[in-house]
Amino acid sequence: MESLAVDFEAALASVRACDFVALHALLESYTSQLHSSGMMQRLLLVVIVVAYVVLGVLLRGPGLVRWLLRFVVVALFVWPLLLLPIGLRLNSPSTMMSSVIMFMTVLHLSFLALWAPSRLSSSACRAPRRHSIPMGLWHWLCEFATAMFPVSWVNENSRPPWSAVFVTLFESLAIAAIKMVLYVLLFDIQLEHASTTDASTLDWPTLFKYSTMHSLMVLCGVWNVDIIHGLLPVLSLRRLSLLSFNQYPLLSSSVSEFWGRRYNRLISRWLHRVLFDPLRGPRVAPALAKQPNQQSQPQQPPRGGGGVSTSLAALATFAMSGVLHMYVVHFAFGTGYLRTLLFFLLHGLAGFLENALQLRQRLGPVFGTVLTITFVLASLPLYVGLFVEAGREWFLNTPDSIPPVAAQFARETVRPFLNELLGA
After folding, report:
1. What is the DSSP letter of 259?
2. Higher pLDDT, 104 or 111
3. Which residues have C-beta within 8 Å of that of residue 271, sequence separation ≥ 6?
């Protein structure tokens, strides 16, 4: 972030001399610094979100008039929020993440304001929500907070044994260490290639190769989440748990499993809560669901009707994911909108077809995994290719997040060993 500085003495002198032209120039310069650093967006985001939440909660309740008022509030607040990332630097990971957070914030608050409480998921609070309980301020804030920070409370009866907690801790730390080393190796290889190659002249095989490499680097880039995932249950004495960002996505046996349960589970859970579950319809309260032969395992209450099919809800969710990523690439790259949307629509269609044809049951886990990963890799240049085509600038703008010890070990020990082993 650029350093922010304003000459207060010059500003005070301009006020005393009534030189409002000079004062305006100073304020304009300071505002420009705020905007280019991203701090202006963050300050405006906080102010607007607070006003948005207050108005949304004050207008909650049944009735068409209240819903229309909430709709007006959403319409007034959505566009200013969505336009906040304008002016951020292109080909920058920080711009990409700022755009993601902005879109998630806007969409989540909008759906909380517009959806009926019975259609919203109840994962934020401990007690399951019944269809007759309206969404209050506390539940509203819980839903928003847990969408951005997926930490959940673990009930005493559901807490895992200490042996399982320490096994998870060891697994998380080991995987994080491997990911740090792989991240450095993949980053250096891509930076070297981007520094010596014109991104506009890449052929499809090269784009495919480096899109695959970049995707693996992204999978390794969440090593810090793995560490927190392992440490949090220990530090909180098993009272808190963190949603793991990925769950071995390369083992997915279907496209639906890849996007729904294994890759980027934060966005997946968020889309389920704000779009997929509401489209499927409200769930019947447990007390009203007649289940004479109850099983020992707790089950989700049945749907109460009034929703669309699972396939249509999934297609709508993939389309919304495509819109989200179109919004992100607009500010991060300034190009690639249609190919980004096509990427997610293709994956949505693939999920629809595999469910309709029951390919997962017919192919089995092994062939299903091979087919799924092949399809995912083949489609990567459509979206991930944008990161490769951004060239050297993208990697130079990427912050160095790897601990120096791990980076030094990867560059001075692992890479020479691999070069010697492969004869490179």
Report:
1. I
2. 104
3. 317, 320, 321
